[in-house]
Design a protein that fits this description.
Elements (H helix, E strand, L loop, with lengths): L1 H9 L2 H4 L2
């Protein structure tokens, strides 16, 4: 889950919503 969290942070807020 940590890996996914890091990726989400790097991605735009729009993607973060996912």
């Amino acid at each position: 889950m940590t890996k996914n969290f890091n990726t989400n942070r790097a991605l735009p807020m729009k993607h973060s919503a996912l």
